[in-house]
């Protein structure tokens, strides 16, 4: 699925992180700096990629020997409507326009396992992308938009599809480890849908950042699905959080709004 263009680890001249203020961007930036790699952080306050013509400002920043990590997205906790969908595509359009006119040495796009159908039987490396949510459709579209531009310029391109991510610094507070821990510490309560039977894979943020660092050093290209070796039920996660916190946290069961699904 992937190929390493560098026969040995080589530090990129500079890594430009688009979305450096986000959960993934912050952790990756810290690991790069710790490894002595030059980093150019780009936050929405620096260049708002949702705006038309933001490609002009981005082009002025890019250098031919840069590695670019596209880690910017408006996540479902901030909107699931068509407006959010189009703003996310606007980012891809502006970045692709900049990269088309100012090619770089390497591009990594951080996508999502949302490109797979949520209701599939176990997903394997051969499972085709067929998103069942508008968020998944957005990520798949951005993968293709970038590919259409980068193939023309023969720019090395890696798509990384992580599953749900947890760890310190998370800003999304989505259903799972991060929310359970916050709720246990603040309210001494964890709310589970049903009995928490549903299983999902969860990826530690430091592990994802380490993988991205290696991909930059190896100038990796292709498609990389990043998941741990097993899925775990939300109920099991809640029990682990309770043991970890040790403050008498209780579990509250909520009615489910749909059928039980596993991923």
Task: List the SSEs and their pairings.
Blueprint: E1 2-4, E2 14-18, H1 23-34, E3 39-42, H2 54-61, E4 66-70, H3 82-101, E5 106-110, H4 134-153, E6 157-162, E7 164-166, H5 177-187, E8 189-193, E9 199-200, E10 202-204, H6 205-218, E11 220-226, E12 232-233, H7 234-245, E13 250-254
Helix pairs in contact: 1-6, 2-3, 3-4, 5-7
How would you describe this protein?
The two termini are 21 Å apart. This protein has a 7-stranded mixed β-sheet, with helices on both faces. It is built from 7 helices and 13 strands. By secondary structure, the protein is an alpha/beta fold. Helix content is 37%, strand content 21%. The relative contact order is 0.17. It is globular, with a radius of gyration of 19 Å. Helix 3 links the parallel strand 4 and strand 5.
Beta-strand percentage?
A: 15-25%
Query: Mean pLDDT score, rounded?
Result: 94
Give the CA-based shape: globular
Radius of gyration: 19 Å
Helix content: 25-40%
* Low-confidence runs: none
Rounded to the nearest angstrom, the distance between the terminal CA atoms is 21 Å
Mind summarizing the main beta sheet? 7 strands, mixed
Structural class: alpha/beta
Helix-strand topology string: EEHEHEHEHEEHEEEHEEHE
Total helices: the number is 7
| Record field, number of beta strands | 13
Strand order of the largest sheet: 1-11-6-5-4-2-3
